[in-house]
Amino acid sequence: xxxxxxxxxxxxxxxxxxxxxxxxxxxxxxxxxxxxxxxxxxxxxxxxxxxxxxxxxxxxxxxxxxxxxxxxxxxxxxxxxxxxxxxxxxxxxxxxxxxxxxxxxxxxxxxxxxxxxxxxxxxxxxxxxxxxxxxxxxxxxxxxxxxxxxxxxxxxxxxxxxxxxxxxxxxxxxxxxxxxxxxxxxxxxxxxxxxxxxxxxxxxxxxxxxxxxxxxxxxxxxxxxxxxxxxxxxxxxxxxxxxxxxxxxxxxxxxxxxxxxxxxxxxxxxxxxxxxxxxxxxxxxxxxx
Length: 289
Description:
Elements: H1 9-15, E1 22-25, H2 43-46, E2 69-76, E3 92-96, E4 105-110, E5 116-119, E6 134-137, E7 141-145, E8 152-156, E9 161-167, E10 174-177, E11 184-190, E12 195-199, E13 205-213, E14 221-228, E15 235-241, E16 250-258, E17 268-272, E18 280-287
Antiparallel strand pairs: 1-2, 2-9, 3-8, 4-7, 4-9, 5-6, 5-8, 7-10, 11-18, 12-17, 13-16, 13-18, 14-15, 14-17
């Protein structure tokens, strides 16, 4: 049985050639969707490095049941290749050589601090300055557009990571901000049968949190996790602790970020254990409002 994230060889041969660049997560088809079409499903692709892509929510709508998606992937832009005509020190370039089936729409998610230039043509000696079949994705933003092509080229800083989806059907064009990158990452640790709280700086919004618990004890139990201090009131979550084995992490993102109730309020993520809970790590992530 193939790995669940592996694309069958036959699909590769039918749909497209291997792209140039560093694929950080294997491509997989987008799953059915809620408007704006394009929001909620690149999460798994963008979620590989939480410290870099910390509060980016799972972008791109579920597409199941519709016309096919040629490719969805997260890539890291390599340095521009001089053999392609780029000058030394030129911005990096990622290109997917050829799609054997022309695409009709593209969604690009840019969590980085620099804009990206997207083109439906093959790589040139420099990023195009504008025109048909080309668009810009600002920093910390996503753009979904109907453009047609058989190649996809993205220009940007070398080492920048972004996610994209290429589809054979037209979509509802949309664009939006992802929000600023997290400026605060606050860890806390709970001992077995203990509690732990991770409090963001006063006034910061919360972009997400992660709870990781250790090996369960002899008795199954449930731990409680609360988020307090946010506008709208307390949010409560539960982590099931098995009698044996390790519970799944509780990984929550907020898009848009949840604002603090007041500028003087600290949003706090709290793990409340009991006599049977294992040790746990709490990491709260936030950004200045």
